[in-house]
Structures are given as structure tokens and as C-alpha cells.
Amino acid sequence: MRANAAGPRASKQHFGIHRIDEHDLPLDATALSSELQARLASPSYTPPILPSAAVRILELSRAPNASMRELVGLFEDDAMLAARVLKTARSASFVSDPDRVRTLQDAAVRLGLKTLRDVVLDVSLNSKIFRSPVYSSAMESLFRHARAVARITKVVCRLTSVASDDAFVAGLFHDVGAVVLLHVLSETRRDSPLPVDEAWPAIMELHQAAGAQVARAWKLSHEVVGAVESHHGMAETEDARLAAALYVADTLAGELSFSAAPSPALLEPKSELMSRRARGLLELDAEQEALLRTHALEAVSGLDA
Ligand SMILES: [Fe+2]
Ligand SMILES: [Fe+2]
Questions:
Q1: Lower CB density within 10 Å: C or N end of the chain?
Q2: How far apart are the first and last CA of the chain?
Q3: How would you label 98-118 residue by residue, b for 16+ Cβ within 10 Å and e otherwise?
Q4: Which residues, chain by chain, have CB under 5 Å from ion ligand 2?
């Protein structure tokens, strides 16, 4: 019998007839993939609900004439969000004199809509989406990884001139399919949770498609959906450059100890072929590569603070 996610499962007592629980049978990764795919394809399946601040900032970032009043209203009632917006706007990357940013309105003007969106998503996603009572430690690893990849993807895009306003969002959501699949697993196997190590191969196999499915449902941009859907196997086309940036950022995040895998035994070796393809799409040269490592390290420093 398999142990559950939290510890060994208690045996069920039956008298006279020995009944076999289907979940007591040895795990077949193909069967688990089919089970998860069937659940995601079911008409009764609904994706997790994004926190309201995340939904609103995504709407405002798509609106051609979002007002400053609406933007500031989003975070003035949320102390944690407001503190992060002010802290980001007062950082050296945005202003030489922090005292010039006194109010949330000053901060919003300084940051601009796209950066505000990134800050709001960065703070708000952790409150709901990356949470599970069954898989809390795996969710923590995935969120830590997502935040690192979001920051490094921005660096990669800047250094390789990938013109994308969505680099941070793509990084933050790139492995959200794994998060969604863990939620599905904890719901469908509520009575006997599966250890994450056993589920991980099926989760990795399906996470790009599952991520794209929920990214569409959440109305993320077409560019983000495409990158989420293909970040482990980008095609050699011009519009695959964001997926290539994600691939490079994902690799660097792993090298800097921000891997998504819930345990070292589940770390997957990176494909040499895909690494070459991603670097080719980005036209990364040796000089940029060295610079990239330095900037990536800076980008993730302080993430664990
Ligand atoms: Fe991934
Ligand atoms: Fe990843």
C-alpha cells in the first residue's frame, strides 16, 4: 500500500470479504495521466478562481483607458499589496530619492500599469492559487520557482531584446499547470492522497497543456498562453522567443536553487537539444550569457528574505 502525502494510510478493515480499493493498486503513470486529463476535460471541471485583485488588475491592464483612481483603489484597502507597491516604487530601480514617492498615487505613476500588474500578481497569487493543505510543501516550491522564473525571464527578455510586456506574467504562470493538477489530485483523491513524488511524472507530462487551459480561462494574453503551452519544447519560429526565454530562465532558476521539483530526486536533467534551440532562438552569445548569470543572480537575491 502506498503512503499518503502526509504519512502512511491506515488499513481498512473488512470482515469475510477482502475488498481492494482501486487506489491501493500499484500506480500506473499512464493511468494517472488519463485520470487527470479526463478530469480537466470534464464539463464539470472549473479552474481555480484567481484572487479578485489579480482578476481586476488583469482587466485594467487590458483596458485602453484605465484610470489612476481605479488602479489605486485596487490596493488602497489591502495593506500587504499597498506596502509592496510603495516598496517597489521606492526601490533604486525606479527612483533615486525614495522620499519623492509618498502616496500610492505617486507609486502608481512611477511604476506604470504593466509593472503594477506584475507586483499585484506577484503578491496576490500566493494567497490562493499556490495553496493546498495536502501539497503545501510542493506548492511552496512551485511558488518560489515561479517568482524566480518571472524575474529571470524579464532579465532574459531585456538582454536579448525580446519585446514583451508579458515576460514577468509568463514566468509567474509558466508552471501553473502543475499547481492546477495538484489541486485536481487533492480533490479526486481526497480520501487517500497520492504522494507528490509518485504523481510528479504525470504532472510534468501534462503541466504545459493544463497550464495553457487555465491561462485561457483566466484570459491571459495569447502570447502568455502560447509560451506556457510550449516552454519545454518551443518551435523554431519567431513567436517562440518568449517560450525560449522561459526555458533559459527556468534552467537558470534551477541552477540558482529555485527548482520547481518538490524533492532533489525529481530534478529532471535539461535537454541539451532544447537548450541549444532556446539559445539559438534568442541569439544568445557568450558575452550575453555571462551577463545573464550575473543579472539573474541579482534578480532573485532577496526572494527568500
Ligand atoms: Fe515547466
Ligand atoms: Fe518551471
A1: C
A2: 40
A3: eeebeebeebbebbebebbbb
A4: 175, 250, 260
Cβ 267 vs Cβ 204: under 8 Å? no
What cell was used for 120? 499585484
Per-residue pLDDT of the chain (305 residues; tens, 9 = 90+): 333 343 333 333 334 444 445 555 556 778 899 999 999 999 999 999 998 889 989 998 888 788 888 888 888 878 888 999 999 999 877 877 888 889 999 998 889 889 999 999 998 888 789 999 999 999 999 999 999 999 999 999 999 989 888 999 999 999 999 999 999 999 998 888 899 999 999 999 999 999 999 999 999 999 999 999 999 987 766 578 999 999 999 999 999 999 999 888 888 888 889 999 999 999 998 889 999 999 999 999 988 87
How many A from CA of 148 to the centre of ligand 2?
9
Tell me how far the alpha carbon of residue 174 lies from the centroid of ligand 1, in angstroms. 6
| Burial group, residue 215, by CB count within 10 angstroms (0-12, 13-18, 19+) | buried
Ligand nearest 143 Cα, by number? 2
206 C-alpha vs ligand 1 centroid, how far in Å?
10
Nearest ligand to the CA atom of 211 = 1
Looking at the CA of 208, name the nearest ligand. Answer: 1
What distance in angstroms lies between residue 182's CA and the mean position of ligand 1's atoms?
14
Give the separation between CA 80 and CA 72, rounded to whole angstroms.
14
